[in-house]
Amino acid sequence: MTGGGPAGGPGVPRMRESDLLSRIYAGSRDLEAAFPHVVAGPGHDCAVVATPGGECLLLKVDQLVAGRHFRPHPHTPLDLIARKAIARAVSDIAACGGRPRAALAAATLPPDFGEAPGLFEAMARWARHWGCPLVGGDLVMLSAGQQGPLVLSVSVQGVPHAARGPVLRSGAGRGDAVYVTGALGGSLDRATGLGHHLTFEPRLEEARWLCDTLGDDLHAMMDVSDGLGRDGGRLAAASGVRLRLESGRLPRSPGVREWRAAASEGEDYELLFAAAEGARVPDRCPATGTPITLIGRAEAGTGCVIVAGDGTEVDASGMGWDYAAI
Amino acid sequence: MTGGGPAGGPGVPRMRESDLLSRIYAGSRDLEAAFPHVVAGPGHDCAVVATPGGECLLLKVDQLVAGRHFRPHPHTPLDLIARKAIARAVSDIAACGGRPRAALAAATLPPDFGEAPGLFEAMARWARHWGCPLVGGDLVMLSAGQQGPLVLSVSVQGVPHAARGPVLRSGAGRGDAVYVTGALGGSLDRATGLGHHLTFEPRLEEARWLCDTLGDDLHAMMDVSDGLGRDGGRLAAASGVRLRLESGRLPRSPGVREWRAAASEGEDYELLFAAAEGARVPDRCPATGTPITLIGRAEAGTGCVIVAGDGTEVDASGMGWDYAAI
């Protein structure tokens, strides 16, 4: 996740959060030079930081805000709120090929919210479930005079794959084959507010297996949170290539009839990755059965285009939601 | 910091955040047994987690909420908001005798807040200043229909002192001498909302020097954020001892006339520590000139008492602010 909104809600036209983040990142370009222990700064699914002893660690923070990323409790069950808060950050660890090890959770709660212990207990349970126990937290309850949504902030520390090392967004090269796991679109059930965006399984096993299987042939990876088009554009920009994807190849979730919906709705939390030309990529992860679909190629240029059925190239970098009300 | 509020504002009587956190921590008591890489879970200024290679890391998250921890911008300058957000978490790394290495920052911003880039740039600057560059972040802007305060969540990763290792709250023993750095009270200027709580210097140098100088004779340490009385009670509880402090010894900030104010106003961000009986503790840190004052002893029992001028013992564990409006 990069700060984007949930699948398909109507956005309010303001300065994009991703543009703001880009401005912020622009100030960090010398980070690796100024701080040699920073292996990879902002601009990937996780930052990579080396310990004094030379081990690499993955670091990620992500937020979950009521009314933005889920319909407020009790409309959304507490357990699913907690689950999503942890799962989003865990998904970013997976996207770097890593294994989560520890989590921290901070919550700012509205004055009438009486479920703080249950919320933290559920976050602790889900954090353990994915192998990153909640080792610390912070809690602020807004006073009666203050209004505000429930805000959860979860940071997760992980370790990269021991042999492959951290997989970044920036490693794709011209000629690479581009794949996606699972299926895209339909993450949010607009009638109920529920759906895949609350119950997705972070692709930890698939990512580890890709690292095991492809090794250095796994060039770049990220999770698809803000829509394939927008996130594809980010991977392309980080790698200095152009992604050319084929609309007819995009795997669509049940009920998703248009490739544009699959490419733009977001909150899929699937893995988008680039592998060396000629690398043998199975069409299914053996352990989980998750399908893996070849959807296009990386080539010279910039941006992410999707070739429609009639052969026209659609600029997809602007597809997907940056912010929305759920 | 443990989730407490700022110095001296009037609290609204509700369930204490610290009580909620205690309930949450109670569910984590088996964490070290279930996850051997968790060296110290919730209940200290930082969690301590071991890497696969056996290095110890310190992890901390803390929040800063407008109207709670500072008067909203532009009343409080943006730079001081950013500074405090980073400094609070850095202070907890110092309290464990550590060195900060990397930071993550997440922000949820009110709809009319136009200063996101400046805020992040200032946080990045302060994070670099204390040696923990901002390597990642997340940004959510509330939509026009949503009201809410500015919420910043900062997590910092650090490493403990190489020789001493992580200093926890739980190491104090009977007979230990109890010290505090600097001076207490008066952190918030009630007229302006400004003051020490926005401009304090995290005691990184002092903590490192204490580790260098005292080594294993430095038994327990924490930062004083919610008031000496309340935080003293926490150190006592974590160590299974009673702290007996002397009111006449408490170092008071200029203008603080009553020891009760010094012990309860909070947001001092000074180091409270216990050292072995007989350990030679200088009365000043040579590098910074920060005074170090012997304020009492650890003994058998529970809680934190302060002996008033007339010899009566005052239970100080309940002193200090848990939440307040600034």
Quaternary state of this entry equals homodimer
The number of helical runs of chain A is 8
What low-confidence regions of chain A span 5 or more consecutive residues with pLDDT below 50? 1-14
* Computed structural class of chain A: alpha+beta
Strand order of the largest sheet of chain A: 8-10-7-11-9-12-13
Could you tell me the strand content of chain A as a percent range? 25-35%
Identify the most extensive interface between protein chains: A-B, 72 and 72 residues
Beta strand count of chain A: 13
- Helix percent of chain A reads 10-25%
N/C terminus separation of chain A? 17 Å
Mean pLDDT across all residues of chain A, rounded? 92
The gyration radius over C-alpha positions of chain A equals: 19 Å
General form of chain A: globular
The biggest beta sheet of chain A is recorded as: 7 strands, mixed
List the helices and strands of chain A in order.
HHEEEHEHEEEHHEHEHEEEE
